[in-house]
């Protein structure tokens, strides 16, 4: 394998990891506030279709990303109203969100099927990107990739050092206590859910505007669910989410380069890899119940409504 | 403005009314949607919900499409009652079809009377085997069954794709990715000549009754219900958590597998890359809209099956995208979840015009101090 | 004059002086759809006064405190703070004007540190170093030692209470609300807490002390307001009253007593030896070398602060938690180590767990179905896998009638019952299924006095009928009332069980802090 090939593979791992990282970061914040939103896949689909449609119609990729993010947030808002105000079961509502997202995105995207546009282009950082090997490997990406690292640093700081991060953790830990000492639990959870929706929206838009600049029905093909698994795998820690995203990025890329690398297995079998790896990774991390008990936000998935 | 007030006891009436409210809200949304798309809503409704049932062939198709929904829905409802979230019925459906298809292709042209029963058994076992994976991982390694069942859907679909493009492809099929057509001995007989609805519909009806009996009359059903509603109470009573998970997954997986078998040995008649328009996922909606009650599942299956048919006719007659079916399905579940709030709360007129808010549940007296 | 008028008279008379008032409640009313929690409640607290709010479970004390702390809004009535009417919208606002509250079920976050917990309840942001210093200063000043860097879940309940108190003190409160603070403390620790509270009061901080324990209120409090059924039934100066007169105001009659005659116990029915059980739950307690025997016709009590392994012990005995290797359990002479809860029940082991809703009963199911929950093979409620609804109906009706369970028939959901009535139902269900051994955890937690009396008497009747009874309770008074022998649990260890007549509250209290060593054990065994 030549150096160019290796760089190409490594770069495509980064590209494949980025939407997973965004979606999982969003879900991480939501879950840290004690809310389990299984609708990531649905929110990503909406982000993807709206991002594509808007970018196609307006000609602006940035506007497409922005609207894709809003699309994800709109979905998250539905989830928030149902679970936080109408007290619906979070698991059922999350599933509904995914099913609804699949239907709605297919409906919206019908007239965009088969169209394409020029995808998000990488930015070469002056001088740095000219360094041999390291240049193309580290300094020749689009803004969203750099954004994912910014987000990582921001989240680490948020949960480690900021008061707001402490409050979010407290709400996820015990909404009853947080309410008793006077924090607006519902409002905080709303914000966490909306943040999750925004990140999923961006992740979806990245699929339809950067990775494969077109709209295909169900194009997330389970990435939303993988993001959910990533959060568990990462034991609710931002840095480990990033590591996990890159691991899965690598597995995803394997299926495209597997044949080239001399692995003679049918493409369908190679495509199973990300899903099987997800299962394996989940088994490894949940094997010890203490790992989960010690790290999982204690109120995860439970409804809370203050008794006035 | 009216406000919500917690009921002392959940309302039984609302338990049953809420799916109807959800359906009506779905229709109202449909009305608005059709109008926005420049269609005459009344006509669109007629095309969507009535026209498919105006011919006897249409009715046959309606029952045919409801069959996999009933089968998967009944199984999922049993699982959901026990709070085992098998959301991968689509994958178990696929593996049931694969297993049954394998039998059909292996004994091709045997024309024996036992081939069809063997296919049925293979279908059930295929679905069960696929559901046994999450059951094993959950009981042995504490792994979340939601994610595992879902991941296995993709694996199953890719596996089917691999089979029909590779080893099981019909050599005389002009390179299309599909298996040979099953012989007549490998096909479920139709109920009435000239119509596609077959005996699997009758099997589904029988299973509705069986599952009702299991859920409400048998202690085993009660055990699963307790496990779902209060896991600590189930542990206290000594109901095994492992048995609960295994039972829930094997029942729902087996039924989904049977549904997959019935689909490929029925209307499709061969293995193809795509054998389901999402029956396994729609069955989740069926189970919830049917209130996790077998009879409710039957009714909800008929409704969702009509949505599938309506989507097809609307595409042909009105040039509407058939994706509208998925949209309606999702909406229906949302409205149901929202309407369910009236099971536990009621509207109370409020004179001082404050924002609607939820008052707390009645605190059992002992807890106040 | 009716009794109501008499009571009102009493209020007016005692409140008519015009000294400075820190807090005054006027006509506070709060109704929930099915119950009136507070009705027309008046209350006055003066600066530096330790004021008791006395009432039994369900009298509306907690609701009233939540109203003062801004957690709950009253339907009507006024709150006066320093003689000026205020509207307390939130706990943050309550803290701002100088109200602090120590909750009965602490409002702490288990996976955060002490310092993080405290910083969450401070209304201004303080740099971590400065916060640590201030925590240490306050904890020294008031004799409340805590380490700011420890995680809450690694601390005992008593230590957690200190965190809650320090958290309040850092906000410089002028009124401190303590909600049933002594249930998590040993009798000795209670005395230390009282010291701290008196010291605070002497510095001018008013204290609202919520309790249903008459003797505590008589030792500590300057003044008491008594609630019954959500209404004020009187105010009093506790040390001028008798226990009897306070009880009269609290429950409307004198405190009921249990009838218990001496009885010679027979054969051992429940025995556990060398039980060592490391906890799987990171927030649980490991059991260390537990030995215990309960004989037919005796009640053995296990005293101790909750969270010292009682839950784990009960789960191991009931079979919910599989027995580890090396331990032996026998039930009525049968080795039960590998038996499931159902199989143990068939040997006649019956168990009433501490959590009624969600464990002892399924909240969302009717009483009728809940009657079926612990049905065994010989009860006839289930025949060859099929439920016999007619028999279940008859059985549930029987339990409801025999134990005077107030409910809307056997179709009523378990969640719709009050704590006391649900407990009567669960105890009744287990007793009606013919136990040989009966285990009850916290039999009267959150239960009103009347129901508590029925439950205690039922346990004594069982003992008289020859059943072996094991009771876990936090209430020492209760244990001394009904037990033949008492053992103490501390940090996962169990003391020997000694006859109740040969020990005292003080001794048991010492043991509760773990002060029973090899020597004590030997001494008791040889005695």
Characterise this structure.
The complex is a heterotrimer of chains A (308), B (369) and C (527). Helices cover 71% and strands 1% of the residues of chain A. The model of chain A has no long low-confidence stretch (mean pLDDT 90). Chain A is mainly α and 308 residues long. In chain A, α1 (3-32) packs across α11. Chain A has a two-stranded antiparallel sheet. With 369 residues, chain B is an all-alpha fold. Chain B has one domain (40-319): ABC transporter involved in vitamin B12 uptake, BtuC (Orthogonal Bundle), CATH 1.10.3470. Chain B has a two-stranded antiparallel ribbon. In chain B, α3 (56-81) packs parallel to α7 (199-217). Chain B is globular and about 70 Å long. Chain C is 35% helix and 23% strand. Chain C contains 18 helices and 23 strands. The radius of gyration of chain C is 24 Å and the shape is globular. The model of chain C is unreliable at 1-18 (pLDDT under 50). Chains A and B meet through α3, α4, α10, α12 and α13 of A and α6, α11 and α13 of B.
Mean pLDDT of chain C: 87
| The CATH homology group name of one domain in chain C | P-loop containing nucleotide triphosphate hydrolases
Q: What's the number of helices of chain A? A: 14
CATH homology superfamily of chain A: ABC transporter involved in vitamin B12 uptake, BtuC
Strand order of the largest sheet of chain A: 1-2
Largest interface, C-beta closer than 8 angstroms, per-chain residues: A-B, 48 and 48 residues
In brief:
In chain A, 71% of the residues lie in helices and 1% in strands. Chain A has 308 residues and is an all-alpha fold. The interface between A and B is large, with 48 and 48 residues.
